[in-house]
From TrEMBL:
<comment type="similarity">
    <text>Belongs to the class VI-like SAM-binding methyltransferase superfamily. Isoprenylcysteine carboxyl methyltransferase family.</text>
</comment>
<feature type="transmembrane region" description="Helical">
    <location>
        <begin position="155"/>
        <end position="176"/>
    </location>
</feature>
<keyword id="KW-0472">Membrane</keyword>
<keyword id="KW-0489">Methyltransferase</keyword>
<keyword id="KW-0256">Endoplasmic reticulum</keyword>
<dbReference type="GO" id="GO:0004671">
    <property type="term" value="F:protein C-terminal S-isoprenylcysteine carboxyl O-methyltransferase activity"/>
</dbReference>
<feature type="signal peptide">
    <location>
        <begin position="1"/>
        <end position="20"/>
    </location>
</feature>
<keyword id="KW-0808">Transferase</keyword>
<feature type="transmembrane region" description="Helical">
    <location>
        <begin position="53"/>
        <end position="75"/>
    </location>
</feature>
<dbReference type="Pfam" id="PF04140">
    <property type="entry name" value="ICMT"/>
</dbReference>
<dbReference type="InterPro" id="IPR007269">
    <property type="entry name" value="ICMT_MeTrfase"/>
</dbReference>
<protein>
    <recommendedName>
        <fullName>Protein-S-isoprenylcysteine O-methyltransferase</fullName>
        <ecNumber>2.1.1.100</ecNumber>
    </recommendedName>
</protein>
<keyword id="KW-0949">S-adenosyl-L-methionine</keyword>
<keyword id="KW-0812">Transmembrane</keyword>
<feature type="transmembrane region" description="Helical">
    <location>
        <begin position="95"/>
        <end position="117"/>
    </location>
</feature>
<keyword id="KW-0732">Signal</keyword>
<dbReference type="GO" id="GO:0032259">
    <property type="term" value="P:methylation"/>
</dbReference>
Length: 240
């Protein structure tokens, strides 16, 4: 498969990241967050200016670098040497260096399918969907759509997108792996910090499951218990 096919796939991964890491609704007020007590780490990151920036900017930055590298490797005669220098491309770089590999396809599927699931959750919850833990006025317990399958499908989608990003950006054939980025200490540190940040966010996110269930059970009582019996799994059917 020509590496040019990778370009629309990269763009779809970037769009998936933006959809996943951009809040679909305004932030809840203090009263709406009060039932969850003290803000958790993810809420503080969401409310900071740099948390969403990392989630949105890094995938697009890496994506644009890889698209430019693909074009420079496929059309070397039309690409100024300065482009190759800026992208840290090696003299031995070939068009096949950025080919669509099996790990990249796995990462792409995870990212796009996760974003589609996340988008479905936005639609079903509507204005009730917030990145911060909150119970809105006249809050309703949504048990239809993806919420019939697992209780926290938006988290499932979030994890899929995040894992998809890490896999697609760090697998063989990616700009990070095929350029000279990892030959420099600064590049190693920056890539390591980003990958660690993404993984840590997943851990913090999964810690929310029990807390959300606890508050929703107190809020909706028997309605929540009936839903729990129908939908016993939190994230992955038959697993957890």
């Amino acid at each position: 498969m020509s590496s040019l096919w990778k370009i629309p796939m990269i763009l779809s991964i970037c769009i998936s990241a933006s959809l996943t890491y951009t809040p679909p609704t305004p932030r809840p007020d203090t009263k709406e967050k009060s039932k969850f007590g003290k803000d958790d780490t993810l809420t503080r990151l969401t409310e900071s200016s740099w948390g969403p920036l990392i989630g949105n900017a890094v995938p697009w930055m890496l994506g644009m670098c890889e698209i430019a590298a693909v074009l420079a490797s496929v059309y070397p005669s039309r690409s100024p040497e300065s482009i190759a220098h800026v992208l840290l491309l090696k003299p031995s770089t070939l068009p096949t260096s950025f080919a669509v590999t099996a790990p990249f396809i796995v990462g792409w599927i995870l990212a796009v399918s996760g974003a589609m699931l996340r988008s479905a959750c936005y639609r079903y919850l509507g204005s009730q969907f917030t990145f911060e833990l909150a119970v809105k006025d006249r809050h309703r317990l949504i048990t239809s759509g993806p919420y019939r399958v697992v209780r926290h499908p938006s988290y499932t989608g979030f994890v899929c997108v995040s894992l998809g990003l890490v896999v697609s950006e760090l697998c063989s054939g990616s700009w990070i792996r095929e350029s000279g980025v990892l030959e420099h200490l600064l590049g190693q540190v920056l890539v390591g910090v980003w990958a660690t940040y993404v993984i840590c966010i997943q851990v913090v996110l999964l810690q929310r499951v029990a807390k959300e269930d606890q508050v929703l059970r107190a809020q909706f009582g028997e309605e929540w218990k009936a839903w729990f019996r129908r939908t016993p799994y939190a994230l992955v059917p038959g697993v957890y």
